[in-house]
Amino acid sequence: MFHILIEEKRQQMIELALVYGFTAKETVKCSQELDELLNIQLKATLVTQQDQSEKILLSH
Fold this sequence. Notes:
Blueprint: H1 2-20, H2 25-59
Helix pairs in contact: 1-2
């Protein structure tokens, strides 16, 4: 589900860039929102990987 939000935001950013330009404030704001979504996803992935690593270590 989260990957859908990321792809929708990415598409919105591309469309804004094509209409207003890559450095327009609308495009930059959307890009920053996309960055936030990507950072949330990255943190969630890292936490999941860390949890899995801890479980493996504890099981040995």
